[in-house]
């Protein structure tokens, strides 16, 4: 993605753990951009991006889910 | 289980943070945004110096939450951890994290937490849920 990384801020982060992670676990992770929108801030427009990440184990059972809000000042 | 709503967890203090630590955290997390270890790059973005990864302070939330998991005993684990990033933290800053019990139910405890940098500015607010069993 073409992003000015000096303008990028991490707004919020949540991690939900369905179970503890164990030694020997093999986790596959898939991240998806679930929301992208523009909002007017005090110093101009800002881009918001919500990324959801899901981690699954070898049985294809969900082990964790995370939600991250990234803000990019223009 | 011996928690009561309003209980304060023993505060934890981490730091002073160093740029070296941010380089190490970049390597561990694979977050190689230069704003965390390249001073001219950070200054070009309007920051007075490099800034710490917010997720590093969120890890300190994880550490204070572990006090609750220990108290609940074997089988307890963190089920949810949330951070809202309010202000940046710089190398040289000491980060102090305080925590308070906000809910107690059979098999679970909820906390709210606050992180502050050296000048007292709130840098992160968050909450956590610890559960016993799956």
Throw out a few tags for this protein.
heterodimer; A: 74 residues; 0% helix; elongated; B: 134 residues; alpha+beta; five-stranded antiparallel beta sheet; 3 helices
Shape descriptor of chain A reads elongated
Uncertain runs of chain B = none
Could you say which structural class the secondary elements and strand pairing of chain B correspond to?
alpha+beta
Strand content of chain A: over 45%
Distance between termini of chain A?
15 Å
Q: In this structure, how is the largest beta sheet of chain A organized?
A: 4 strands, antiparallel
Give me the count of strands of chain B: 5
Q: Give the overall pLDDT of chain B as a whole number.
A: 94
Largest sheet of chain B: 5 strands, antiparallel
Q: Order of strands across the widest beta sheet of chain A?
A: 1-4-3-2
**What is Rg of chain A?**
16 Å
Oligomer: heterodimer
Rounded Rg of chain B: 16 Å
In helices, the fraction of residues of chain B equals: 25-40%
Beta percentage of chain B is 35-45%
What would you call the structural class of chain A? mainly beta
Biggest interface, residues from each chain:
A-B, 17 and 23 residues
**Low-confidence segments of chain A, ≥5 residues, pLDDT <50?**
none
Topology (elements, then pairings):
The complex is a heterodimer of chains A (74) and B (134).
Chain A: E1 8-17, E2 28-41, E3 44-56, E4 62-73
Antiparallel strand pairs in A: 1-4, 2-3, 3-4
Chain B: E1 8-14, H1 19-29, H2 39-44, H3 54-72, E2 76-85, E3 95-105, E4 108-116, E5 122-132
Antiparallel strand pairs in B: 1-3, 2-5, 3-4, 4-5
Report on this model:
The complex is a heterodimer of chains A (74) and B (134). Chain A has no helices and 4 strands. Chain A is mainly β and 74 residues long. Chain A has a 4-stranded antiparallel β-sheet with strand order 1-4-3-2, with no helix packed on it. In chain A, strand 3 and strand 4 form a beta hairpin. Chain A is elongated, with a radius of gyration of 16 Å. In chain A, 5% of the residues are buried. Chain B has 134 residues and is an alpha+beta fold. Helix content of chain B is 27%, strand content 36%. Chain B is built from 3 helices and 5 strands, in the order E-H-H-H-E-E-E-E. In chain B, strands 1-3-4-5-2 form a 5-stranded antiparallel β-sheet, covered by helices on one side. The mean pLDDT of chain B is 94. Chains A and B meet through strand 1 of A and helix 2, helix 3 and strand 2 of B.
């Amino acid at each position: 993605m073409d992003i000015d990384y000096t303008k990028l801020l991490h707004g919020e982060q949540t991690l939900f753990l369905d179970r503890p992670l164990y030694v020997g676990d093999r986790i596959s992770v898939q991240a998806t951009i679930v929301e992208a929108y523009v909002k007017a801030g005090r110093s101009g427009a800002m881009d918001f991006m919500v990324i959801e990440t899901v981690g699954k184990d070898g049985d294809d059972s969900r082990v964790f889910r995370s939600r991250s809000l990234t803000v990019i000042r223009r | 289980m011996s928690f009561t709503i309003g209980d304060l967890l023993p505060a934890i203090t981490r730091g002073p943070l160093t740029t070296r630590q941010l380089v190490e955290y970049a390597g561990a997390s694979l977050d190689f945004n230069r704003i965390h270890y390249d001073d001219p790059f950070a200054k070009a973005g309007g920051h007075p110096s490099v800034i710490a990864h917010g997720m590093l302070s969120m890890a300190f939330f994880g550490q204070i939450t572990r006090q609750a998991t220990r108290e609940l005993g074997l089988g307890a684990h963190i089920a949810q951890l949330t951070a809202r990033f309010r202000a940046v933290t710089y190398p040289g800053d000491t980060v102090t994290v305080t925590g308070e019990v906000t809910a107690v139910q059979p098999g679970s405890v909820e906390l709210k937490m606050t992180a502050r940098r050296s000048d007292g500015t709130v840098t992160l607010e968050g909450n956590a849920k610890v559960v016993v069993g799956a």
